[in-house]
Amino acid sequence: MSFGWHRDTIVRVRAPLTTDPYGNPRRDWAAAERTPLPGWRVQPVQGARQTAAETIPREGLQRSRRLFGPISADIESTDRIEWQGEVWVIDGDVDRWRGPTGRLAHTELLMQRMEG
Fold this sequence. Notes:
By secondary structure, the chain is mainly beta. The protein contains no helices and 9 strands. The strands form 2 sheets. The chain has a 6-stranded antiparallel beta barrel. Strands 2-3 form a two-stranded antiparallel sheet.
């Protein structure tokens, strides 16, 4: 179901699965397909400052957003999201929630990106 405040359009970025020279599966992000998905609500989640890695002596800012969208959205946890000109990674599972009456059914996910 689409609510009046679900006005954001995100772009699903889905990369085909290929194999590397050693026979291991990997995503080919250069050949990714981009599909606009309207009817989403993107909300901020507080970010956190953290060290990017032990070998990189600098701090970064982890930015997160929570998304709410249609229950029928074709989106998987291996996809990436483009929103407002930035590419985000899906953090965790893509959850599909059904209300007892069906009226409040929706998809929910968390996306994040690291800066710094």
